[in-house]
Amino acid sequence: MDVPFVLFPLATENGEHQTDARLGADCVALVIYGQRRMGRHIPYVSPPALKKFLTPVLPRTDGNWPASRGDVLHFGFQTAVIYEDRKPYGVLNDDDLIIHTYHGRAEVVRFGALPYRSHRLEVYRWPRN
Question: What is the pTM of this model?
C-alpha cells in the first residue's frame, strides 16, 4: 500500500477518505481499508469500535494464539493484520508476517519485530459472508 502514517485520517476536500485515496492511514484505517477493497461496507472507526465488526478468536489450549492470514491483531491502542502465516503453521509466532502502520509507512514486518508486540493481545477474524 505504501502510504504514510496519518493519525486519524479524514475526508479530503472532495469527500473521499484519505485512506481510500491512499494518501495516509493509521493502524485501524489500514485494517478497514483491506475489507473495503474487498467490497465490504465497513465504516472507518477507532480501534475499540472495530471489535463490533469482528469475531473473537480464543487462544489455543497450549496458550498460543492461532494464526490465519487476515486475522486482526488487536493490542487495544494498535491494530495489525496477519499477512502471511509461517511455520509452524496455524500458530502466531515471531516469524509470521504482519501488515501494519505505526509512525512511518504501511509495511510488512515480522511479528517479532513489532515494537508493541509485548502489549496485551487479542485476535479477531472477520465474519465470513
Answer: 0.90
